[in-house]
Structures are given as C-alpha cells and as structure tokens.
Amino acid sequence: MLSYPFLSAPDFGDVLEVAPGILWLRMPLPMALDHINLYLLEDSDGWWIVDTGIALGETQQLWEQVFDRVLGSKPIKAVVSTHFHPDHTGMAGWLCERWRVPFYMSQAEYYVGLAFGRTTKEHYSWSTERNLVRSGLTADQVARARDKFGGFGPIITPMPTAFQRLEDGEFLTINGHRWQVIVGRGHSPEHACLYCGGLNVLLSGDQVIPRITSNISVPGSEPAGNPLKEWFRSLVHFLESLPPETLVLPAHNTPFYGLHERLRFLIEHHEDQLLALEEACLERARSAMELLPVLFKRELDEHTIGLALGECIAHLNYLYFRGQLARDEDEQGCYRYRSIDATLSRRLRQQRHDTPDQPPMQV
Ligand SMILES: [Zn+2]
C-alpha cells in the first residue's frame, strides 16, 4: 500500500515544508489534471526552483506572491526543469530572466524543448498525415486534425537561452546535501529526477506519480520509436538504485511512500496492457484506433485522444519490435495488427502472479 504523509495539499501559490529545507508549492493547470507540484530547495545563499508551472493563467502572479511571502532575505539562485513538457518548463525562461540565474536541464530535454517551442502550423506535413492514416483515422478525422494543428510555438514561452547540463549519476550540492541526478526515459527523452540519500527524498517529476500513470507516447516525429522499452528499463533502473523507504515528491498528485510498490505496479500495468492488446489481436487484425477501448475504458475527449493514441502505438510498437505482433498495411494505408501467439505473454503473467514475494499491487 502506498502511504501519503501529508493530509492536505497547499493552496495554489502557498507552500508546505515536506522535508528540511524543501517546500512543496502547487500551481494551477488549465486541464483535467488541474495542478502541478513544484519544489523550492533552500540553499545557504538562495533558493533552487524545481519545475516552473505552465505559462498560462495566473502562474506568473502566483510566483510573484511566492517571492514576496516565502523567500525571506534569500534570492532565487537556480532553476531546474525535470523535462521539457510545458507545465514543467513554461515559466523557466521568465524565471531565469527575472533573476538572471542558471537553468539546469538534461541535454536532450533542453534541445527537444527548444525545437518543440518553435513548431508552427507548417510542421503539419505528409509524414504527420501518414502517421494518422496508419493509425486508422478516417479521411474526415485526418482533415479535422489538419485544421486543428497549430504547432506549439504560439502557446509556449521561450526557453532560457542557455542551460547547464544534468547528467545521469552526477551530483548537485544544495545546502550541504548531495543530490544525485537519475535519468528516466520513455515519458520524455531524458527526464532528470533528483535523489538525496541524506534526506531520503526523491524529486520524481513525471517519472513516478502515485495515482496516475505517466503518458508513454510514440511521437509523430519518431513513428518507429519504442518509448515503452525505455520506460520499462527506467522503472527497473529506479527499482535497483533507490531504497524502498524513499519519500517521493512527484510533479502531480501528492508526496508518498511506497516507491518500490509503485514501480512494480507500473511494470505490471503495462505488461497487462500488452497482453490485452495481444489477445484483442488474436481473433482478427485491428488498427490502433480500434484498439483504444482495449487500453482505455473511459470516454476519451478531443484532448486526450491524441495522448491515448500515442500510448496505444507505444504498446503496439513494443510488441511489433519483439516479434509478438505482425502488422499489414491495408489498401487505405492503415496498419492492421495481428497476434503471432499470446501464449508466451500469458505464461509470463501467470508466473508473475504465482510468485509469492511479489504479489500484484493494488493502488
Ligand atoms: Zn511530463
């Protein structure tokens, strides 16, 4: 069972100390997932910010409120973003400019973030369209996607103009504590988490979240990508390198204990999804669009369908590259997936559930 040591979350723009010198701050998001958690780390001569909030709505005003009420006599001294997604980097450019401080990020995240922030309507191309057709969208749905596509540049503020690189295994020293950079892949290219053994704390970003599963999507820019393979490797890397009693400070939901349970749950969750897809493709060949209800039981709205389809293709690519699914292109150019044989997956799943020391986790 996961446990949640804090009974209530701070209001937007307020802070709560969750470990010595670590403040939990929440900012609003204009979507179903309505908040992001950011953290302030106190150093001897200033504050580090970890993740920045989205550059929409009242985030900037709330930051000013934090500067007035929380910092005391110390300035902001550095900004860290765990990964490039807009809720994590949206205000980074503004914060680094306002305080003239360095920006810390992994190399891949920085450059992907720069490129992502420059996409415009012109980036909708024949390859975008082909990906949609391959996924099983109808001609009408493809036309609607073309009309709606605006790129991300117009809704994202510029990233900081320079960065300081975070690399897996390196350390930052903050207030005399050593924070180790631990990189995860699959949700984004080179997601940096920070772990402090002295404080027993992991700043986990979107890599480990207690109540929602992080989106693992094949991006349109890399249709033959295999992010789920990278995700599995990362989950195992975290299991092997971090102690189970770590206090996890995630970017969404609330701080929790139960890191290993959660990591094992995530591995099992995706294994179950893979088996469900294999079984659905046993009786007849299906497209990615047709397979969405196999993975997602809830109604998908316009915003979430893109993420859901990306995640479905991540699972299909994983099975395809392992030789467990075949795919044929039909006359319309749509990929139809067929199972080669689901017995291996069934047997692996059975073995796992039969192993007494690793029961399936219920969270
Ligand atoms: Zn993210």
Protein topology:
Elements: E1 15-19, E2 22-28, E3 35-43, E4 46-50, H1 59-69, E5 76-80, H2 86-89, H3 92-99, E6 103-105, H4 107-116, H5 126-135, H6 139-148, E7 164-165, E8 171-174, E9 177-184, E10 191-196, E11 201-205, H7 227-241, E12 247-250, H8 259-283, H9 288-295, H10 302-321, E13 325-329, E14 335-339, H11 343-354
Parallel strand pairs: 4-5, 5-6, 6-7, 11-12
Antiparallel strand pairs: 1-2, 2-3, 3-4, 8-9, 9-10, 10-11, 13-14
Zinc ion binds next to loops.
Q: What do these coordinates show?
A:
It is globular, with a radius of gyration of 21 Å. It has eleven helices and 14 strands. The protein has helices at residues 59-69, 86-89, 92-99, 107-116, 126-135, 139-148, 227-241, 259-283, 288-295, 302-321, 343-354, and strands at 15-19, 22-28, 35-43, 46-50, 76-80, 103-105, 164-165, 171-174, 177-184, 191-196, 201-205, 247-250, 325-329, 335-339. The strands form three sheets. The protein has a seven-stranded mixed β-sheet. It has a five-stranded mixed β-sheet with strand order 8-9-10-11-12. Strands 13-14 form a two-stranded antiparallel ribbon. With 363 residues, it is α/β, with parallel strands linked by helices. 37% of the residues lie in helices and 20% in strands. It folds into two domains: 15-117 and 156-257, Metallo-beta-lactamase, Chain A, CATH 3.60.15.10; 280-354, Arc Repressor Mutant, subunit A (Orthogonal Bundle), CATH 1.10.10.10.
